[in-house]
Amino acid sequence: MKAQRKLVSGAATRLIGSPFYVLKPDIFDGVLREFQVSYLYLEDLVGNTPLVKLKRLWQGEHVTVLGKLEGNNPAGSVKDRPALNMIAKAEARGEIKPGDTLIEATSGNTGIALAMAAAMRGFKMTLIMPDNMSEERRASMRAFGAEIISVSQSEGGMERARDLADEMQAAGKGRVLDQFANADNWNAHYESTGPEIWRDTQGTITHFVSSMGTTGTIMGVSRYLKEQTPDVEIIGVQPAGESQIPGIRRWPVEYLPKIFDAKRVDRTIDVEQELAEQTMRAMATQEGIFAGVSSGGAMAIALQVAAEQEAKGEKSVIVSIVCDRGDRYLSTGVY
Predict the structure, then answer these.
(1) Which of 77, 134, 243, 294 is the catalytic position?
(2) What DSSP designation does 128 have?
(3) Known catalytic residue: 173?
């Protein structure tokens, strides 16, 4: 494809076997302009999401707070990256082929992203999810042609969904990608999200904040950023107490994602559901950033860290992941 050849020849870096391009900073804008008259595949548009500066929620003298807008991905969330990567890498290794049925337990965003990626690459998709997820998420999955199996909270919610996926695979009903134990999950962020953040901050990032669900985002970004500078602080966000925040979890020990490595997170901070929702709404009304509750939780902690750094008078650049868009939460009443 013409546009891809141009990318590989000098406009961007692409790791061997990776579906991601990381555009070089000196020609980033020029390449985007050139793409306006070039043809791309949908998967070429996963990644290279914008990094925007807060200008009303935060106005510190020494600290800059940035949000990485992952809702700009084709299926609307940060999960587009691992979804595409898990399918593309498994297919490249010969583990799956178009026409096969893929199975995954999901709380929402991964399911939407997998349904999209499966549709574009010719796979059937079965998704198992807790029944308390928003109707917008379910409708989006169905729109991409996925089959949905619901699991009630009384049956065990997300933990039961994961067990059921394994049972279906054992019964020969399809192949489980297993985002919770699949290295291609975190590797997607090592290959794309981390390099993009480093590029767009020109290496000035001092703190990275991410909500933690499967933990793929924070694991991959942490690996990449720590290789560039060990001084960057990696901060994970999880729900406080009984808070129910879609997409992020405080996992029971026996269900802790196998890809998670606690040594790669410098600090883990709890966020209350009420604060996450308040910050989410403030992001929309004061910054024009329309996002979900987990994004509000991460940004709430990013603002707390910004206040800490500002009080110390330390020059800092804080990047928070804005995981998705707010339109898939409207039916829940959080807005």
Answers:
(1) 294
(2) E
(3) no
User: Are 56 and 4 contained in the same domain?
Assistant: no
H or E element: which one contains 322? strand 316-322
Sorted by sequence, the CB contacts under 8 Å of residue 20 that are 6+ apart come out as 14, 46, 47, 81, 85, 188, 191, 192
What token pair was written down for 317? 């650049």
Domain shared by 156 and 218, yes or no: no
Say whether both 272 and 213 belong to one domain.
yes
Task: Record the tokens describing residue 266, joined without a space.
Answer: 């410098």
* Whether 294 is catalytic: yes
Q: How many domains does the chain have?
A: 3
Tens digit of each residue's pLDDT (9 = 90 or more) over 252-303:
788 889 999 999 999 999 999 999 999 999 999 999 999 999 999 999 999 9
Find out whether 205 and 317 touch, Cβ atoms under 8 Å. yes
Q: Using one digit for the tens of pLDDT, what is the confidence trace for 197-237?
A: 999 999 999 999 999 999 999 999 999 999 999 999 999 99
Among the listed residues 18, 68, 77, 79, the single catalytic one is 79
- Nearest Cα residue to 131 out of 168, 169, 164, 102: 164
What's the CATH code of the domain at 170?
3.40.50.1100
Q: Domain limits at 32?
A: 1-40
Verify that 116 and 203 share a domain, yes or no. no
For residue 220, report the phi and psi dihedrals to the nearest 5 degrees: -70, -45
If asked whether residues 64 and 86 sit together in one domain, one would say: no
Q: Which two tokens stand for residue 17?
A: 């076997």
Amino acid symbol at 189: H
**Residue tagged 């595949």 (tokens):** 41
Structure-block tokens of residue 334:
């959080």
> Per-residue b/e over 256-274, b at no fewer than 16 CB within 10 Å?
ebebbeeebbeeebebbbe
